[in-house]
Amino acid sequence: MTNILIADDHTIVRLGITIIIRDMLPKVYIRDVDNFDLALKEMAKRHYDLIILDINIPGGDNLQMIDVLRLRQPKIKILIFSAYDEELYALRYLQAGADGYLVKHSSEHEIKTALHQILNNEKYLSSNIRQHLVNGNVKTRPTGNPLLALSNRETEVMQLLIKGSSVADISKTLHLQLSTVSTYKTRIFAKLEVSNIIELADTVRMYSNN
Question: Where are the 4-aspartylphosphate modifications (predicted)?
Answer without folding.
Answer: 54
